[in-house]
Design brief:
The structure holds 2 protein chains of 2 kinds. Chain A is an all-alpha fold. Chain A has 2 domains: 32 residues; 217 residues, MetI-like (MetI-like fold). Chain A contains 11 helices and no strands. By secondary structure, chain B is of the alpha/beta class. Chain B is built from 8 helices and 12 strands. Chain B has a 6-stranded mixed beta sheet with strand order 8-9-10-3-11-12, sandwiched between helices. A 4-stranded antiparallel beta sheet of chain B has the order 2-1-4-5. The mean pLDDT of chain B is 90. The chains are: A mainly alpha, B alpha/beta. At the A-B interface, helix 7 and helix 8 of A face strand 8 and helix 3 of B. The structure holds adenosine-5'-triphosphate and magnesium ion. The site of adenosine-5'-triphosphate has 12 residues of chain B, from strand 2 and helix 1. Chain A: It comes from Chelativorans intermedius. Chain A: It is a multi-pass membrane protein.
Chain lengths: 261, 264
Amino acid sequence: MAGDRFLRIALPTATVVVFLVLWTVYVRTAEVSAFILPTPLEIVAAFVELVGDPDIWHHALVTVIEAVSGFLIAVAIGITLGMAMARIQVLEWAFKPFIVCLQLIPKIALAPLFILWFGFGLESKIVIAAALSFFPVFSNALVAFRSVEPGDRDVFTMLQATPFQRFVMLDLPTALPVVLAGMEVAVVMSMIGAIVGEFIGGNEGLGYLAVAMLQELRVPGLFAVIVLLTLIGLSLYTLIAQLRGWLTPWHTSVMQGNRDA
Amino acid sequence: MKMDNDADIRLSGVGKTFGRGENAVRAIGDATLDMKRGDFISLLGPSGCGKTTLLRIIAGLEQPTEGEVLVRGRPVWNGEKRSAEATRPISMMFQEARLFPWFTVAENVALPLRLRGVNRAEREERAFALCETVGLKGFERMRPSALSGGMRQRASLARALITGPQVLLLDEPFGALDAMTRDTLNLELMSVCQQARVTTILVTHSITEAAFLSDRVVVLAPRPARITEVVEMPFERPRSLDLQRRTEFQDMLVHLRASLTGDH
Ligand SMILES: Nc1ncnc2c1ncn2[C@@H]1O[C@H](COP(=O)(O)OP(=O)(O)OP(=O)(O)O)[C@@H](O)[C@H]1O
Ligand SMILES: [Mg+2]
């Protein structure tokens, strides 16, 4: 077991190291211009410089606020609609085809429209982030609240549980693992939404900064912004995954993860 | 009709057909049965003959297509509506354990009390005591997934007993248990039911278990379930495992087996 543990840390580390070395060797030997592809070390240097600049935290905060607000809006609406449609068949018949059609629109293509409607400030980016992260939450919530087994319901019926008791002690815990899995996907989508919004318009946020770097041909700086965005995305994702561990410690996917760790 | 006050469960002409037209499955024929308070009866019949369906009808989880069920004088169904009043005294243990993974074993056992608003300290105390009774001491704080199949059934039994029900419906409660544990739990069950005069219906595949525990054994014939015979178990109570070695008991088993396979 100890050997397994060592391999599970050593192998991915080795993969990353080999990748970075090959990258460096390629840039050096092929004499790729630093304007096109800097070496990993140049990116690290640019990253250190980037996070040393006090302005950067303002941009990062803006992007996080946009992504998180959009995510929370998507979660609120997605869970509410999913739950309502899981409960009330007529609602599903009425609205689900419509929502699925909306989902088929490439929402990134709507981003310019949202900028037009909601302006160049935070609002338009929040709307884009919400639009992108809504569907995974909604569709998972719909499945989740429908997956309560009739046999489990019978137990609560026999115990004369009130509808509220049943919701809190049966429906909610049954649905939670699947809803949280949808939220894990959604939080990543919300970051994408915020960044795309910033690409298109505005003068704040890491997406804006990336475009600015590109226009000044500061390619290592551009990579540094990408690294920072990745770290932020990873933190948000980890937060939700952590939440899953706290809220649904009994669930097999969580228990499996614990065993792996 | 004047209600006999002592009649706890009364089935009159109960029938159940699932589905309609060509796909209709007639699960229960014409079941009529009277149980007094404290009666212990077993339903004995081949797999798929409608035993679970009959229990679910009595519990109000399934609506009969014909006939009526009265529990303590109250009809289980008022038209299309399940009567909460009539079903309140009933506790049911399902064929599957149906424990909830988000609760610990003790929380699962105490769930009926929690739903009735009993405070936490009292819930815990009663759940722990009952866990000990059914042989789950030391497992109270674990999750159901840490239990074996048989242990889960025991937890499920404890959950069914914790409210002190007046009517107990048990659907093959000890199917997954070894013979020794089964005997122990059967004795426990018998004493609980006798002391509190619980009206009990037990579904089982074990002829010995049915004969040993019951006042009467109801033998069912399949498709649709019909009551072929109701056999009195004339053995005095309290009963001990010694009873199972007596010749009258052995003769009874032979009789029941014959009745079950339909040759007389
Ligand atoms: N909801 C349902 N819809 C349609 N048919 C059903 C339904 N429930 C039960 N049946 C049918 O009714 C018959 C009796 O089923 P039931 O579960 O009551 O049998 P059982 O005697 O409990 O069997 P076992 O001993 O295997 O548990 C079966 O033929 C089954 O297919
Ligand atoms: Mg059954």
